[in-house]
């Protein structure tokens, strides 16, 4: 079964009805037909570049006379994604590489896009990098993908060629024969930016283990030298009159570019008044997340998820001979790991009882959907997104010595550098008070006061602070009645309210990542109504009197009118 720690969500496609030959038409091998070092379930999760044609279990059983597991059925109609770079791609590639073979000195097997080299006696010579692993191709933006290479890894390469020399010729007395004495790949070399890393004995299928130098963008080149010795024999009337040995050689190469993926983590810590711990980590390159405890029970991960897909350039090979070229399906298909930003977004685990993500940050990027391909259906973001270069969490417990930071390349974890004392912050409790200092019948003036709960020192907002991790952002503020206000150097802010009611003022502190000292939030309530003062009651009576005056005038006028016409006399004779 697939390791459920890696399996997160299913979202795209693949065919199970096919053989290795079918890979040229986007069909993976049928489960159980390949000896690839993986279980049938693990093999089923590999093929994310294949068509979305689901084969029902009934049709599959009728066609092959066997059943599939539940995961195989799911993988037949979806692409499987992972929460961390899986090892299955490298395992498949390592085993499938053994199926790549040369076909003898008269035949050259090569990719359709191979850069072929010819010399006097050598034709269709080439070198091709089959795979460099561990590695991950990150889909970062609409026009940007980056191949990240582990500092220590393995390159697998294929080298092939064919021998050509003139055919034997015969005249009336003169006969010329050509024969092959020897041919070999004398050496295979791996270079980084022109400097040799590894040299190995010649082989059609070279496996070179490397340790990359430096960091950042780099170019890896696979080079090979091919040598041939042929013999020319000239006979006249059956007698050898010339025996000549000719040698020839050619160098071939293939290269790829990538970025050496080497992480160094610099955590920042904080302690909340209630004993909770805060941790923040920033990385300029994409990274996966970190664990907070020794047993890994609490962790946080960013936007990156993973899928595996074959390198489609190896679907078809070309067989070149002296008679021409023919295409054939490849018996060896490399599989690589891809990273993409997921719509699921950052997640802290355990989901309900685990740490809380308090802040994420990074530069805005466009959605990378155009770089993934039509046949890959995954939960990739479809609009601009913010990659989680920075992740800050709050948890009830953090084991700083057990903090582990993992990258998007399999097996690459960050070296953790403990921060200086100034970046280990103790969060202070804040005290916010609200008081009505004056009011009229139409408005009230409220005084907000913010202090450090322990030292009593005023907390001034809107001041210039230091930003050790982030670039400039908003300082802390107080909200009341949909207004955002800041305190002065005395920790005081004054607000005018025009509508009677009960108001709650909330202190929203700036993140402890950006300011020192740092505080936790607080709130205070205040009530205002015009009847809360003597002036308010007086204004109420005056206002009511003016509103009742017309009715009193009308009553008095009606009373006088009735007396004028002596209405009472008619009613009481």
From TrEMBL:
Record-annotated DUF8186 domain positions: 99-261, 265-417, 427-526
Pfam families (UniProt xref): DUF8186, DUF8186_C, DUF8186_M
Spans through the membrane: 537-559
Superkingdom of source: Archaea
Name of this chain's protein: Uncharacterized protein
Keywords: Membrane, Transmembrane, Transmembrane helix
């Amino acid at each position: 079964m697939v390791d459920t720690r890696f399996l997160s969500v299913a979202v795209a496609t693949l065919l199970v009805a096919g053989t290795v030959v079918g890979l040229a038409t986007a069909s993976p091998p049928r489960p159980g037909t390949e000896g690839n070092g993986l279980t049938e379930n693990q093999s089923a999760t590999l093929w994310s570049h294949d068509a979305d044609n689901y084969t029902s279990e009934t049709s599959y059983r009728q066609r092959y006379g066997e059943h599939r597991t539940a995961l195989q059925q799911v993988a037949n109609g979806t692409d499987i994604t992972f929460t961390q770079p899986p090892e299955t791609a490298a395992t498949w590639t390592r085993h499938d590489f053994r199926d790549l073979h040369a076909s003898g000195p008269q035949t050259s097997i090569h990719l359709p896009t191979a850069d072929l080299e010819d010399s006097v006696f050598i034709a269709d010579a080439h070198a091709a990098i089959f795979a460099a692993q561990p590695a991950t191709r990150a889909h970062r933006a609409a026009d940007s993908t980056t191949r990240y290479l582990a500092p220590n890894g393995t390159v697998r390469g294929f080298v092939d060629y064919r021998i050509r020399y003139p055919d034997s010729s015969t005249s009336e007395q003169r006969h010329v024969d050509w024969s092959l004495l020897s041919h070999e790949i004398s050496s295979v070399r791996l270079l980084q930016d022109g400097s040799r890393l590894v040299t190995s004995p010649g082989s059609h299928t070279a496996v070179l283990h490397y340790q990359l130098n430096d960091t950042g963008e780099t170019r890896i080149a696979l080079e090979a030298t091919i040598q041939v010795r042929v013999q020319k024999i000239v006979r006249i009337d059956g007698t050898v009159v010339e025996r000549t040995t000719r040698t020839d050689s050619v160098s071939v190469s293939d290269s790829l570019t990538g970025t050496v993926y080497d992480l160094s983590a610099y955590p920042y810590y904080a302690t909340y008044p209630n004993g909770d711990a805060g941790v923040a980590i920033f990385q300029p390159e994409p990274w996966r997340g970190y664990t907070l405890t020794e047993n890994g029970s609490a962790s946080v991960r960013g936007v990156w998820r993973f899928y595996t897909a074959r390198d489609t350039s190896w679907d078809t090979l070309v067989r070149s001979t002296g008679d021409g070229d023919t295409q054939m399906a490849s018996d060896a298909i490399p599989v690589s790991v891809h990273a993409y930003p997921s719509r699921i977004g950052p997640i802290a685990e355990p989901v309900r009882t685990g740490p809380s993500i308090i802040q994420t940050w990074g530069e805005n990027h466009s959605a990378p959907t155009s770089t993934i391909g039509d046949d890959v259906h995954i939960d990739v973001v479809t609009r601009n997104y913010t990659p989680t270069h920075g992740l800050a969490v709050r948890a009830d417990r953090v084991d700083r010595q057990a903090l582990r930071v993992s990258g998007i390349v399999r097996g690459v974890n960050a070296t953790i550098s403990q921060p200086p004392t100034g970046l280990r912050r103790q969060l202070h409790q804040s005290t916010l008070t609200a008081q009505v200092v004056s009011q009229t019948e139409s408005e009230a003036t409220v005084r907000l006061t913010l202090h450090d709960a322990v030292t009593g020192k005023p907390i001034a907002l809107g001041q210039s602070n230091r930003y050790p991790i982030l670039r400039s952002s908003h300082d802390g503020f107080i909200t009341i009645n949909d207004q955002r206000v800041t305190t002065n150097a005395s920790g005081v802010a004054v607000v005018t309210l025009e509508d009677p009611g009960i108001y709650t003022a909330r202190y929203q502190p700036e993140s402890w990542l950006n300011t020192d000292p740092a505080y936790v939030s607080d709130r205070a309530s205040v009530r205002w109504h015009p009847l809360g003062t003597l002036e308010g009651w007086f204004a109420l009576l005056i206002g009511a009197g003016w509103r009742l005056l017309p009715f009193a005038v009308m009553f008095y006028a009606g009373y006088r009118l009735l007396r004028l016409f002596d209405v009472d006399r008619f009613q009481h004779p």
